[in-house]
Amino acid sequence: KLTFLATGNLISKINNITKIPTQLLSLGDVKISGRCAGTKHSASFDGEIVTSECGKVELLSSFDNGEITAKAKTSSLSLGKILSINDIGNIATEIEGKANIKDKKLTNARINANFDKLEYKGYPYSNIHLDGTFDKGTIAGALEANDPNVNLHIAGQTSLANTVKSVNASVNVERLNLAPLNLIKDCKEANICFSSDIDLNGSNIDDFTGKVSFNQIFFHGSYFIVINVTDCCLLLPVRPGKGDNKAVHWDLPDFQE
């Protein structure tokens, strides 16, 4: 059985000698406890990491002949404090991951995460699910939220391995109530829904070409003001003036009230 304790004062003293990641400085006292075992080609750990300032994480991980598996669970972790981002609060999540290491490269990486709570701008988002994969320079994944004030689904894939990068994604927002989410102040009844498809290619952000199309945009605000836009398209490059024919073009139909 393994037990390790580092006080916040000790971490600060180590930081005075050699700089350590700033995220560690916000944890306070850190205690790692659990059972670990290992051989030349395998290792495992089953325990928890407890901090005095940011909460605790239960961790189960193993490494066996190049395959890494890990599972982390927390009922309340102060992620915003760790990242020094004021808009982010506590999270409650369970995350599972698996990957292979071959020739010192990470392959067949997969992640599955469920968030029972994710606080942002004071609002506790719930019922969020994330799936993702990474292999040979290609990232693919899906994000789904079924919260009382947010219902959305995003799926996409991006290729980073080749000289020409690509981004392909579909976005479907069925419900986004802006005021309860603290994303807008002046219009308490504001809500928006839309669906969109993204298809971009380029060697870097300055050279991205393609289009972002919106199949439908529906906005409902105070006094029952309704804007309904269908079949509009944003043609890229995204940065006008970076070269020949660099222009952003909107193809918009007439507004429907």
Describe this structure in words.
The protein has helices at 8-17, 22-25, 79-83, and strands spanning 2-6, 30-38, 42-51, 55-64, 67-78, 88-102, 105-120, 123-125, 128-135, 138-147, 150-159, 165-177, 191-202, 209-220, 226-237, 249-251. The chain is mainly β. The protein has a 16-stranded antiparallel sheet that branches. A hairpin with a 5-residue loop joins strand 11 and strand 12. The chain is globular. The termini are far apart. Residues 238-250 and 252-257 have low confidence and may be disordered.
Give the SSE map.
Blueprint: E1 2-6, H1 8-17, H2 22-25, E2 30-38, E3 42-51, E4 55-64, E5 67-78, H3 79-83, E6 88-102, E7 105-120, E8 123-125, E9 128-135, E10 138-147, E11 150-159, E12 165-177, E13 191-202, E14 209-220, E15 226-237, E16 249-251
List keywords for this structure.
257 residues, mainly beta, 16-stranded antiparallel β-sheet, 3 helices
Mean pLDDT comes to 85
Task: Characterize the largest beta sheet: strand count, sense, and whether it forms a barrel.
Answer: 16 strands, antiparallel
Structural class of the secondary elements?
mainly beta
Instruction: List unreliable stretches of 5+ residues.
Output: 238-250, 252-257
The proportion of residues in beta strands is over 45%
- Counting DSSP H or I runs of 4 or more residues, the number of helices is 3
Based on CA inertia axes, which overall geometry fits? globular
Determine the fraction of residues in helical runs and give it as a percent range. under 10%
Total strands: the figure is: 16
Amino-to-carboxy terminus distance: 67 Å
Gyration radius, in Å: 23 Å
Order of helices and strands: EHHEEEEHEEEEEEEEEEE
